[in-house]
Amino acid sequence: xxxxxxxAGYVGLVTGTCFAELGNQVTCIDVNKEKITNLTQGxxxxxxxxxxxxxxxxxxxxxxxxxxxxxxxxxxxxxIFIAVGTPSDTDGSADMQYVLNAARxxxxxxxxxxxxxxxxxxxxxxxxxxxxxxQAELDKRGVATKFDVVSNPEFLREGxxxxxxxxxxxxxxxxxxxxxxxxxxxxxxxxxxxxxxxxFMNVKDAEMTKYxxxxxxxxxxxxxxxxxxxxxxxxxxxxxVRLGIGSDSRIGNAxxxxxxxxxxxxxxxxxxxxxxxxxxxxxxxxxxxxVEDRNYAQKRVLPAKIRKIFGDDLSDIxxxxxxxxxxxxxxxxxxxxxxxxxxxxxxxxxxxQVYDPVAMPVAKEMMxxxxxxxxxxxxxxxQYAAVDAADALVLVTEWKPFCYPDLTAMKKLMRRHIILDGxxxxxxxxxxxxxxxxxxxxR
Length: 443
Known about the structure:
- The protein is an alpha/beta fold and about 450 residues long.
- Helices cover about 40% and strands about 15% of the residues.
- The strands form 3 sheets. The chain has a 6-stranded parallel β-sheet with strand order 3-2-1-4-5-6, sandwiched between helices.
- The longest helix is centred in the middle third of the chain and has 32 residues, at about 205-235.
């Protein structure tokens, strides 16, 4: 099948590459000329395990193409995915300008029937706006081309996106007609072992499903983070509580790990957008606001622990930080807890030494140059260089190389033997036996 994906960012690039891997002819479109030039040379704008070799091989086999506009693509598409960003607007609502720009470009291009698929995360009712924008452009051209607009939200986890695409838990399709339903079923048949895994529903139902899914996961995280604060006050170990409730099949083990707050491109903006949707429709989003407030507070737990240990003036203190990205397996720094931690430490005059196996180039672009120029912030060449002469180590992102640290080497390198574990990755008894002062979350 001939497929076009508008947007060569995280969702668009993964989606387009995976469809090419399944034997389709795919063109990824992006208005960013530098991004497209780099992609044609095999240089990816994101880090995602396994994606780079898949892009390279499908380009070499002639199935994956890149272009700056619809007019430059080599094949007439049967399906056009809209996979552009929907960032938070100033009021917290999702900004639809890129989605509607894509819709207008589709209306200015198509001459034959195609299915237009909203893959971007969009508020309820945006499919209608996309349909209207396409039709308006067709009317301007005096073209009577038929088309359908479908909602097909993505559920890709950064760091596991290829596996999520190829072995999905479910596929949600808000379809507009029997014709579009048949095409979407044909498109996804190679990756659904059971037809029960694909759910066809109303377009608005599909749009809402994406937001509710992310908000539910964010709620589980914030709930456990709030319980971790209470557990710490009561002298209770949240990790034992987690094991106890996770064994309940009604609750399960997923997304109940306490930590130093969630980040990324989805949960923060989608919770904000859902809050705004509720407010615009006369619903007071009490739970959603609490989810957001707890996450804001949780990102400040580690800085508060550091102040409690060392005081407010950290001018003579060096802090080593392991992990920058909002989660392991990605270089995504959006809304990362590390940003809140590092800014707090810099403001308190601390010297900060950071290591992340992937995200340091992205982080450097996001952080003020004066932090580096002043010598307060430095990026280490390897994880143990980050703890050299440090008064404390703070684990923020639980990358696999951090799972089993060489405590003997760390004792020799560090000035003081203090570990603040923002993900409860380490065994407190093991740390104490190794003569480290250990602080977890809710422990």
